[in-house]
Amino acid sequence: LKVDHSFVAGLGKDTPDEALIFALIEMAHALDLDVIAEGVETQVQCDILQRIGCDYVQGYLFSRPLTYNALLDLLGTIGTEPETRGDAVRRPLLGGTPEWRTQNGKTPPL
Questions:
Q1: What is the pLDDT of residues 8-42, one digit of tens each?
Q2: Mind listing the pLDDT tens digit for each residue in 62-107?
Q3: What is the DSSP letter of 91?
Q4: Adjacent-strand bridge partners of 100
Q5: Is 15 helix (H, G, I), strand (E, B) or coil?
Q6: Alpha carbon distances (Å) from 57 to 69, 81
Q7: Within 10 A of 109 (CB to CB), how many other CB atoms are there?
């Protein structure tokens, strides 16, 4: 289930968006669906989405749109430390536990 960026934009502000996204995540998980939120631009948005159980996020916080060659360069760095790549990733560790890292390489608290 994909959460539109218009809802994500309201996270961290005085809006009902967090409650709405939380309800969407709960509903999706009850239907055994993963949830991806688009348009994540700030660490605050990322932290809230992680806290309320969002499975995946995408947006400018992680990477701007890439050319084909830039994408190939990025894919060639998979498995290296995020802080050396200048982007952010969420990838499973052994056992399927997600690992969140931001542009500065820090892992947000759960």
A1: 999 999 889 999 999 999 999 999 999 999 999 99
A2: 888 889 888 888 888 776 555 444 444 444 433 444 444 444 454 4
A3: E
A4: 90
A5: coil
A6: 23, 19
A7: 8
Taken as a whole, the chain contains a residue count of 110
- Single-letter amino acid code for the residue at 52: I
- pLDDT per residue as tens digits for the range 4-15: 999 999 999 988
Six token digits for residue 94: 């052994």
DSSP SS3 for 100: strand
3-state secondary structure 53-108: CCCEECCCCCCCCCCHHHHHHHHCCCCCCHHHHCCCCEEECHHHCEEECCCCCCCC
Query: In 3-state terms, what secondary structure has residue 74?
Result: helix
How far is 82 from 72, CA to CA, in rounded Å?
Answer: 16
Q: Which long-range contacts (CB under 8 A, 24 or more apart) does 93-100 make?
A: 98/55, 100/46, 100/50
